Amino acid sequence: MVDHGGVPVEVGGEAGYAVRNARKTELVEAPWKEAPTMAHLFEQSCDKYSHNPFLGTRKLIRKEFVTSSDGRKFEKLHLGNYEWETYGEVFSRVSNFASGLLKLGHSADSRVAIFSDTRAEWLIALQGCFRQNVTVVTIYATLGEDALVYSLNETEVSTLICESKLLKKLDAIRSRLTSVQNVIYFEDDSNDEDAFSGSLSNWTIASVSEVEKLGKESPVQPSLPSKNDIAVIMYTSGSTGLPKGVMITHGNIVATTAAVMTIIPNLGSKDVYMAYLPLAHVFEMAAESVMLAVGCAIGYSSILTLTDSSSKIKQGTKGDANVLKPTLMAAVPAIVDRIRDGVVKKVEEKGGLVKNLFHFAYQRRLSAVKGSWLGAWGLEKLVWDTIVFKKIRDAIGGRLRYMLCGGAPLSGDSQHFINVCMGAIIGQAYGLTETFAGAAFSEWYDRKVGRVGPPLPCSYIKLVSWEEGGYLTSDKPMPRGEIVVGGFSVTAGYFKNQEKTNEVFKVDEHGMRWFYTGDIGQFHPDGCLEIIDRKKDIVKLQHGEYVSLGKVEAALSSCDYVDNIMVYADPFYDYCVALVVVSYQSLEKWAEQAGIEHRNFSDLCNKPETITEVLQAISKVAKATKLVKSEIPAKIKLLPDPWTPESGLVTNALKIKREQLKAKFKDDLLKLYA
């Protein structure tokens, strides 16, 4: 087997240890010569795969509400089969939308914002804007009011595209928006738009179908962009302060697309991709760009409808994955961890023969996966897959062959879980909004855990020494330092923020752009990158010990009681503390077995014996993962309520927002040090 990996390379800019992908001696810039922008690529792909299914959405059969024992109402959906539009049909809709947008009154030199959950119309609107060289501002549907107003006003958006259910949110901030003139909404079955049309009457309001009809009746010639034109201003879900708008060019998008196309094995028009992550996030936009470039079918879903047991799926009906039966999907580590934890808990609950058989089969398959790759196949694999793992795989359709994982480090346990229980290859990706997700990507045959692979063929990755933190490119046995990404995927900088742009973006003597990530990495001998730290997460304690907060959090997240965790270190003390969102099921199960009486879950979290139990479990995991004493939280605060993107305490990729958490739980942190 050919081991591609990465090889050292001489590059310009600041001195460091640089590596390129071994597949290509020159950086890849576009999937093919005639596709310098996403508008060109999209048109050519739709022409090539004209009759192939492209975008699929499940038909809503019925919506109902159920009432829980405590009186709360929950929406449940009964969904039908996927209904598909072909590449040719979607291209017609995109062309009509592009024309209708201008006929509605949108000026081609002003910006459009898309404020919506992921759905087929999101991609149609995006490509429609690209067809007229209109820059799109992407905004998370979960963004708070202040950040939403800031993003729309800063980019002087004149047309806002949103879901009808978000019109209420829009109405509440209408008086604070300075540039919006047009609102286009995605129709759905709730008819929420009728309730707000009057109060939004000072804007031009139209549905997507009305805009498409307008464009079909009065077509406008396309105005295709160039590779250096700004395609998207993507607001990061960053963990500190107000969001920053990253200016992404068409060249950035096609470069990452071209690079990933060379990495995923046997990628083609026979594949089916499940789309459910936010399209406003760089990971999902990059993934869907790759899928449309190779003619894949894209079926839309959501976290709330993904599986048969998802919260919005009516009991007794099928979740999206069971109907779509995808061969490809993307996931962030938090979602993979939830899938793994859910399976393990179900197995533990069944106990007896089922539990013993699962663990025996898992260890047999895990040994094969860790050993010879060829040993992972054969008759024994067929037996265990049929007897033990088939039901687990059927939960996401039974056909998954490849999972793209990014957004944060993936634990080795979760990676092996996907390999064994799902029977799928997992490709770990490393990238940032500032590099349009294009930095590193693991090879399909790489079974080592904790690594993100070699640089993508569109990028170089350089390590630059960070002497203050003790990470040097001269370190043995592997060079270490701050990760700096250079190449065609590196974006144009931050919108209206030249100071910050100059701080982290550099142009070398050859004209190549480099982005200083703030992440710390090390290169293995085969040219594969491992993320080992982050500059902003390192705190120096009272006696000089360094604590890497992210490293500790990653280690402790494997504790059964931990649903989420933020470690905090005050430099005036010699120990760290932690805020722990506890797992409801695990803690209630312990309380029942231990005979701990409590009024409710909050009461249970505050009991001294509960805190002692969780702290002991955390300390056990810490020692097993070889954390030193200064890295193990000496005190903890247990929190009963989960951290969600809606609460503003985690990003849409489910990474913690450290500054927001510190502000919200300031008093609790002070008490832990009292």
For this entry, give a set of tags.
674 residues, alpha/beta, GMP Synthetase, Chain A, domain 3, eight-stranded mixed sheet, seven-stranded antiparallel sheet, 21 helices, 23% strand, globular
Q: Can you tell me about this structure?
A:
- This protein has a domain at 541-672: GMP Synthetase, Chain A, domain 3, CATH 3.30.300.30.
- Helices cover 33% and strands 23% of the residues.
- The chain contains 21 helices and 27 strands.
- The strands form 5 sheets. Strands 4-3-13-12-14-15-16-17 form an 8-stranded mixed β-sheet, with helices on both faces. Strands 1, 2, 18, 19, 20, 21 and 22 form a 7-stranded antiparallel β-sheet that branches.
- Strand 20 and strand 21 form a beta hairpin.
- Helix 12 (352-370) crosses helix 14.
- It is globular and about 70 Å long.
- Shape annotation: globular
- How would you name the CATH homologous superfamily of the domain at 541-672? ANL, C-terminal domain
> How much helicity do the residues have?
25-40%
Q: Kindly provide the radius of gyration, computed on alpha-carbon positions and rounded to a whole number of angstroms.
A: 25 Å
CATH architectural designation of the domain at 541-672: 2-Layer Sandwich
State the oligomer: single chain
Q: Low-confidence parts lasting 5 or more residues at pLDDT below 50?
A: 191-198
Please report the first level of CATH classification, the CATH class of the domain at 541-672. Alpha Beta
* Ends distance: 59 Å
Mean pLDDT: 89
CATH topology of the domain at 541-672: GMP Synthetase, Chain A, domain 3
Described by strand count, sense and barrel closure, the largest sheet is: 8 strands, mixed
Q: DSSP helix count?
A: 21
Q: How much beta, percentage-wise?
A: 15-25%
> Strands across the major sheet, in which order?
4-3-13-12-14-15-16-17
Structural class: alpha/beta
Total strands: the figure is 27
GO molecular function: long-chain fatty acid-CoA ligase activity
Organism: Glycine soja
Domain AMP-dependent synthetase/ligase: 78-495
EC number: 6.2.1.3
